[in-house]
Amino acid sequence: MEAHLVKDNSSNRILVLENQSANQMFVYHYLKANSFEAARVSSYDEALKVIEEQSIGVLVIEDFTQKASDLNLVATIRKHRNLAELPIIVVSLLSESATKVAAWNAGANYYIVKPAGQEELIAKVNLCLSLHKSYQDLYTKEEHLATKDVAIDHANNKAQYLVDSVSGISDYLFYDSVTGLPGRHVFYDLLERAMVRAIRNDKYLFGLLNVTINDLDQLKAKFPDGEMEQIWPAISKRLQLSSRASDLVSRIGHNRFVILLDDLREVSDALRVANRISKSLSTQLYILGHRVEVNASIGVAVSCDSYESPESLLEDAYKASLLAKTLGKNKTCMCNKEYQKHSQERLNLEQELYDAVAGRQFIPRYMPIVNCEDETICGLEVLLRWRHPSGKILIPDDFLDLCDRDQLVLPIGYELIKAAIEQVKKLDTLNPLPKNFTINFNISSCQFYDNDLLNSILLNCQDFKFAPSHICLEVREDTFTKDLAKAKQIIDSFAKHGIGCILDRLGSTYLSMCDMLDLNLKAIKSNYLDLISDRRSLELKERYAKICLKISDFLDCQCIINGVSNAEQAKLLAEAGLKIQEGYAFGKPLNLHSLEVFAENNYKLN
Hints:
TIM Barrel, alpha/beta, Alpha-Beta Plaits, five-stranded parallel sheet, nine-stranded mixed sheet
C-alpha cells in the first residue's frame, strides 16, 4: 500500500469489509438505505487493493474478531494511513473489553457491538467522514503552503522545516498521536454541529465533560524520562470504556480531555457518565510495573443553558472542573447549581431504588374491579407503590423511568407479584375468594417475554398455597405486536395452569380482530377516559359501549371498562351492558386492611 492520499471527489466513499456471508451483514444495507456512497468487499486482499487504488473516506470491518488476521489488517493500514486519513470502524458480536482494547490498540477509531441500531452506526460514520474531510482540507492547505515556502526559502533549506512544523500541528489538531484520540479540530467541529442541532431542535440535549488530570509532578516522579507519556493511552482507554458508545472522547491539551455527550435524555445523564468516569479513574493503573493513582477533576456543562457559542460551553465545563479540584480528589461538579442539585437528587433516587429492591420497600395497593349488577368486588388490579425511607408513598410516575433505564423492572415486578399473592392469600383465608375472583397484575413488555415469569408465579402460588386460576396478567396491546407468534405461545403456556391474560388498552395499537381471536384472551380492557370525554354526546357514548360488547362477544371473553370516574358514567355503562367496571367511581386504591373489611362483608361494595 502506498502512503500517499489519492485526491479525487469521492472522499465520502465508504468501504465495507464483510467477514461473513452477505445475508448476515447489515452495515452495507444500512448505509445504502441512508444514501451513503458505499462499496463492499469480502476479503482482506480486496480491501487493501481498493484502499490503495481509490479514495476511501471510511473503512468499516463487519464481524470483527480478535484473530490475528483482523488485527493485522487494521495495523497494516495504520502503518500508512493515520486515524484522520482513513478512519476505521469495527463492528463485532464480541463485547468483551479485551477485544475492544485490542482493536483500539491496532488502530481502530470506533468499536460497535452487535446488535446495533442504525442511529449509532450512522452517527459514527458521520463522525469519521467529518474527520477525514477535515484532514483532506488541511492536506490541501499544507501542499499550498509547502509550495510557497519552497519558492521563498529553498536556498536556506528552511522549507522542509516549515512543512514538517505544519504537518505536526495538523496531526495534533486532528488526532493525538500518543492516545489515538481525535484532537482539537475534530472536537470543535462536532461541538459546533451539536450546538446548531440544539438550536434547531429544542428537544435535543447534549453535554460536555472537561476532564483535567492533576498532580502531574507526582506522576512524573514515578517514571524515568520519556516513560511519562505511557500514562496517557491508559487514561484514554479508561475514558472510552467508561463513556457511552455514542460519546466522543478527545484530547485537547497535555493533561486535558473533553468528552462530548450526544443525545442526553435528561441533565442527570451527564452527571451519571461523569461519576462513572470518576470511579473508573480512581481505580489504580498499572503501567510499566508502576502502580499509578490518577487524580482527575471533572467539570460538566449541558446545552440547555442556551449557550451562544461552543467556546462558552467549553469554558463553563473547564471552570466547573476547577471548582471540582477544590473539592478533593476525583470530584465532579456541574456549572449550574440548580442542575447539580436536581441531577444529584436523581442519582440519589437511583441508588435508593437498588436499596429498595433489597429491602422489600415496594408494596401493593389494590384498585377494586366491580360487578355493577350485584355490586360486588369481582377482582383487584394490583398497583405498585414505593414506601420510601422518608415516609412518603411514591407512585410509579415518580421513579419508573429510572427502573426502565437500570433494568430494575424485572426484580421490582417479581417482588410485587410475591407481596400481592401473600396478602391476597390472607383475604382468602379470612373469607374464601369467589370462584371467578381475579388478581390482575400489570405486566411490562420485558417481563411478559421473560422466561422466568411463569415459574415465578407458580412458585409463589405453591409457597402461599394460592390457586393460580385467580391470577390474570394485564398486557398492553403493543407488547403483543412485537412478536405475535411468541406472545400466543406464552399465553397458551399460562392458560395450561389456569392463568388468564387480559388485553389492556384496547384500541391503542394495530392488532386485528383475527389476531386477538388467536390470543386466547380471558378479557379485554378499555379505558373509558382514553376514548370518550364528557363533552361527547350521549349517543356516541352508547355506541362506544356497544362496540366494546361486540368485540368481547366476538372474542368470547369478558370486557372490563377502566377509568370510570363518577356514578353517572358507571350507570350509563351498566345500562348499556358493560357490568364489569373499575375506577375512582368506586373508591381510591386500597391497602390490605381496607380489603379485609370487604372480605368480612362477603366482598360486597356497600
